[in-house]
Amino acid sequence: MIEAHELTKVFKVRKMRPGLWGAVRGLVSADVEEVRALDGVSFSVPAGERTAYLGVNGAGKSTTIKALAGVLTPTSGHCRVAGRDPRADRYAHSRTIGVVFGHRTQLWWDLPVEESFRILARLHDMSKEDAVLNRKLFDEVLDLGEIAHRPVRTLSLGQRMRAEVAAALLHNPRVLLLDEPTIGLDLLLKEAVHELVNRVVADRGTTVLLTSHDVADITAICERVVVVDSGRDVYTGSLDDLLRQAPTRTVRLDYSGDIEPEVLASHVRQDIGRVEVGVAGRRRIKVEGPPELATPQRVLAAVSGLVAVTDLVAPEPTLGEVLRSLYVRTAEPARGSTR
Ligand SMILES: Nc1ncnc2c1ncn2[C@@H]1O[C@H](COP(=O)(O)OP(=O)(O)OP(=O)(O)O)[C@@H](O)[C@H]1O
């Protein structure tokens, strides 16, 4: 449903020098630098799937979403949404997609929210019944009633984002492009957006591509993940597989007995090898290392006969931890090696 093939985007930015003289020189000299926002990114999202498009700040996420939305022309490569080049037939494309750009509004700044919805429904040739049905659903989940009559410019960020999400979903788009859709929302409203998107997606089989720095958005909505770094795709797979890729695991062990935790830690370190073992309490040690070594079984075997184990915990790595390590790895000099 969504395809990006070797997309590149190079922005040309005029270099500005400081001060008035610098500004004048900037006007006449052609001192231009190139910013490679996308550097051959490729990925696809099958119909009905919900994919998170992730990466550090400046990785190229918004640029990709803009290319898919048809508001930006790639320098090379191509993308297709529902089999269509986003730039080829803008009108048909706009009816296929719903877009939320968290950092900018898609609504009419001076018009009441209600009026924006009415215009959008007309632009998309919606039947009156469908428009009313959707408005009822959005009112119910996002509580739009209190803001419906207010001009967009008077809304708080959170209120505006509620209206933006509703506007993007109003015409039952087949593809939903969400760029930071919960920015500025409190916890309850974030959950409301998750609920709305999930309800709509389940009912209509909508394909979703989401960028967010909020782990809760990703885990609540998405099943697959594409990670980009410096404009290139460095990981594509299911969310579950990504979680299994955690480079380290932790096992925490509580025990009773006379042995001091420093002594036990040193013994476990020697026994297992290639793991970090630290003291985490009066009678508690923490073992951290590669998933095949830092296992409850290995730790139990290492302390067997020395102490009585009173508790043992091996927490699953969180998505935040896995992403952090992936971002750190891709930021290292051998960039793109996980591609
Ligand atoms: N219009 C533009 N002109 C020049 N450079 C741009 C433009 N838009 C984006 N860039 C640059 O392209 C790169 C990718 O930007 P993009 O906004 O796609 O990143 P992002 O992954 O969405 O980041 P963030 O998480 O901070 O929103 C950045 O280096 C950015 O400065």
TrEMBL record:
It is a peripheral membrane protein. GO terms for molecular function: ATP binding. This is ATP-binding cassette domain-containing protein. Keywords: Antibiotic resistance, ATP-binding, Nucleotide-binding, Transport. SUPFAM superfamilies: P-loop containing nucleoside triphosphate hydrolases. The keyword Nucleotide-binding applies. It holds the Pfam family ABC_tran. The keyword Repeat does not apply. Its main location: membrane. InterPro entries: AAA+_ATPase, ABC_transporter-like_ATP-bd, ABC_transporter-like_CS, ABC_transporter_ATP-binding, P-loop_NTPase. It is found in: Cell membrane. Residues 2-255 form the ABC transporter domain.
